[in-house]
Amino acid sequence: MQGLLPLKGQHHVSSLTANARENYQFYTKTLGLRLVKKTVNQDDTSVYHLFYADERGNPGTDITFFEIPNLGRTYPGTNSITSVSLRVASDESLQYWQQRFQLLEVDHDGITEINGRASIRFRDFEGQRLVLVSDENNTGVKGGTPWDKSPVPREHGILGLGPVTLTVSRPERTAKVLTQILGYQEKESFPSSTNRKDPVRVFETGEGGAGAAIYLEARSDLPRERPGRGSVHHVAFRVDNEEELKKWVQLITEKGYPNSGFVERYYFRSLYFREPNGILFELATDGPGFANDEDFEHLGESLALPPYFENQRQAIEAKLKPLDTGQE
């Protein structure tokens, strides 16, 4: 795309929660992810922003949450991100997870196949729509490294993000952005579990595989989703470095898409824009990462603030409900 390096796949997915404490318990104690950063929403420092990932928050392994207390329920619908996949090593791992979900009373379906991959659909305590997907026959973007202090055995630990499903009313508009702007290639399709008329279309970028795949589902029969707790706020795609991101800012602007311009997030640099169906896309750099302001052994234990917020720490902490995330 005009001298740009291809996007490298999913960077992170950010969602909404009404309860940071229960959210922390579910994603660390139930799913076994590591809280690699406890910080604040940089656009609204009165609320937490929690990052869960592999052992160090490698790009492509993060699922993050903004806490908005008293947030209402989600009314599912179209023009939204309707499921987020998390990769595990093997089909055998799904057997482990099915037993774990039964034991811990996690709302889940049975093991099924989605686009040729063994999978389990499940929901968190707020109805967040998630899928565990086996990496057994996967190629392409490599997964991360599960934390060795996770309650989940390392061989069954979550490796990172898999395919993200976009459900839209006008699929050609989103497909055009994916292929003509972002450089994705349409690879294949598979039957939809909710729409007998139109198959789910598969788009991949970079090295391809589950960690670089977007599923595009057409649903013109649904109302627009009304987001709430458990809904997905945006999906971010990996950009190699800051120089590349600045090129993307120029391209997106030249193509006429309203956008955020270059945004400093300290742990990475970003660009935000909405595709024509209204889904928020972010492009984010692979670095600097989460270990540049905390020791690796103690990631996520204390409230981390970028340097440009440090002079506001006392005021910021006063607005936040204490959240104990120290190692037990």
UniProtKB/TrEMBL annotation:
GO terms for molecular function: dioxygenase activity. The keyword Oxidoreductase applies. The keyword Oxidoreductase applies. InterPro entries: Extradiol_RC_dioxygenase, Glyas_Bleomycin-R_OHBP_Dase, Glyas_Fos-R_dOase_dom, VOC_core. It holds the Pfam family Glyoxalase. CDD domains: PcpA_C_like. Keywords: Dioxygenase, Oxidoreductase. Residues 9-135, 160-286 form the VOC domain. This is Ring-cleaving dioxygenase. It comes from the Bacteria.
